[in-house]
């Protein structure tokens, strides 16, 4: 079944055509595992994490932040980039603390997902954090971000996903994975 599943292609040529602050674009010439010769543009990004932070009474940390891709404020789970030399667990605890002020009691990687693997190398580790809502410290934002966060009952988050109000792939995947396999 799927004889070439997870077999890599052979990249014959790679040319960087754009480099920006958050991503770069390479033009690739590839021979696929099944023998096709193709040309593809690949968006290259840093690894990311998405955080499902849940309190002992099933309150979820939800964040509201402006997102350029939809040119709107978006409500979703806290997320961020994994810095060089940092593990996904360290990045999740750091991002939760910086963006929300909540302090992680435990951090567990649920799974890893890809976003748009047809043209992007980005993956996101979906992280489960247990925290105590009474333990909160000062937030520290990057200079170009401001994040609002609130505690929302898990069932309300599930309802928002069902209604399409929360629709980021990482949030839907995180909550879905948690409710299907861990709850």
Characteristic key phrases:
20% helix, alpha+beta, four-stranded mixed sheet, 2 domains, Nucleoside Triphosphate Pyrophosphohydrolase, single chain, 183 residues, 46% strand, three-stranded antiparallel sheet
Write the layout of secondary structure elements.
Blueprint: E1 10-19, E2 23-31, E3 37-45, E4 48-54, E5 59-67, E6 72-76, E7 79-81, H1 88-100, E8 102-114, E9 123-136, E10 148-153, H2 154-163, H3 169-182
Parallel strand pairs: 4-9
Antiparallel strand pairs: 1-2, 2-3, 4-7, 5-6, 5-10, 8-9
CATH-assigned homologous superfamily of the largest domain: Nucleoside Triphosphate Pyrophosphohydrolase
Secondary-structure element pattern, one letter each: EEEEEEEHEEEHH
Distance between the termini: 31 Å
Helical segment count: 3
Q: State the CATH architecture of the largest domain.
A: Alpha-Beta Complex
Low-pLDDT ranges: none
- Write down the CATH topology of the largest domain: Nucleoside Triphosphate Pyrophosphohydrolase
Q: Could you say how many structural domains there are in total?
A: 2
The percent range for strand residues is: over 45%
- Radius of gyration over alpha carbons? 18 Å
Main β-sheet description: 4 strands, mixed
CATH class of the largest domain: Alpha Beta
Strand count: 10
Mean pLDDT: 95
* Relative helix content: 10-25%
Q: Which geometry do the CA atoms define?
A: globular
Q: SS-based structural class?
A: alpha+beta
Query: How are strands sequenced across the largest beta sheet?
Result: 7-4-9-8
Keywords: Hydrolase
Domain Nudix hydrolase: 44-174
Pfam families: NUDIX
GO biological process, one term: nucleoside phosphate metabolic process
């Amino acid at each position: 079944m799927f004889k070439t599943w997870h077999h890599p292609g052979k990249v014959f040529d790679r040319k960087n055509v754009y480099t920006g602050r958050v991503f770069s674009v390479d033009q690739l010439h590839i021979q696929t595992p099944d023998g096709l010769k193709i040309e593809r543009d690949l968006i290259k990004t840093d690894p990311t994490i998405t955080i499902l932070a849940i309190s002992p009474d099933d309150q979820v940390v939800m964040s509201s932040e402006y997102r350029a891709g939809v040119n709107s404020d978006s409500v979703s789970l806290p997320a961020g980039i994994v810095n060089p030399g940092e593990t996904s667990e360290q990045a999740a605890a750091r991002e939760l603390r910086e963006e929300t002020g909540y302090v992680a009691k435990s951090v567990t990687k649920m799974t890893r997902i890809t976003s748009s693997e047809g043209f992007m190398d980005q993956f996101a580790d979906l992280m489960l954090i247990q925290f105590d809502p009474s333990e909160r410290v000062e937030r520290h934002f990057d200079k170009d971000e401001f994040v609002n966060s609130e505690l929302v009952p898990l069932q309300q988050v599930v309802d928002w996903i069902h209604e399409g109000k929360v629709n980021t792939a990482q949030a839907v995947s995180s909550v879905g994975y948690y409710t299907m396999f861990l709850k």
